[in-house]
Amino acid sequence: MNAPLSVVSVNTRGLRGRRKRLRVFNTLKDKFADAVFLFQETHSDRSVYQTWRSEWGSEIFLNHGESNSRGVMVAFSNNLDVNNFKIFNDNCGRIQLCTFEYNNQKLLIGNIYNNNIESEQVKTLAKLSEMLEKLDPFKYEIIIGGDWNFIWDKNLDAFGGNPTLKLNSIAEVTKIKNKFQLCDIFRVRNQTKKLYTFRKPTPR
Fold first, then answer.
1. Whole-model pTM above 0.85?
2. H-only helix segments in the chain
3. Which residues have CB under 8 Å from 178's CB, separation 6+?
4. Measuring CA to CA, which residue among 87, 77, 134, 89 is closest to residue 107?
5. DSSP sequence for 176-190
6. Cα(131)–Cα(96) distance, rounded to whole angstroms?
7. Share of the chain above pLDDT 70, in %
């Protein structure tokens, strides 16, 4: 029997530096034994594949952005036993979808690094919906992780400053949730919890 599968999502803010890259890779591999890793903002291009693959220690799947922006990557724990793996990229360094079988389950894992500008976010989210629809998604258990680059609730999802809600982006994700019968599992399980995945050193 295979161990339960973890899905780990990390915005790396660039992996071009070797010291940082090895620290990120080794920390994640040591912490999670059976996992799919979703990396965003990798800053990869075609020149890095062989080096990064060797440092990770097994196959990686890159969707390049530019050497100083965008880029997403899917990687697996060493020796993770998956079957019938397929990957689908938007070829813009924003979206990856992969389908595979693990522990007698059919899984569809999504990795997104969304834009910062709301109008561009909506286009990326519409592309995500289009890509999902082409994969006959109701055959799979679907998990989508990544950096969405907007918040849903000013009180629960932000602290300090003057946060604004990107209502068009929220509406687009709501369409995706309804269309593919998805939920925000963190918020379902933590309805009033304040927890932030991004912090600035100053101001707070």
1. yes
2. 18-31, 49-56, 118-133, 154-157, 167-180, 185-189
3. none
4. 87
5. HHHHHT---HHHHH-
6. 9
7. 97
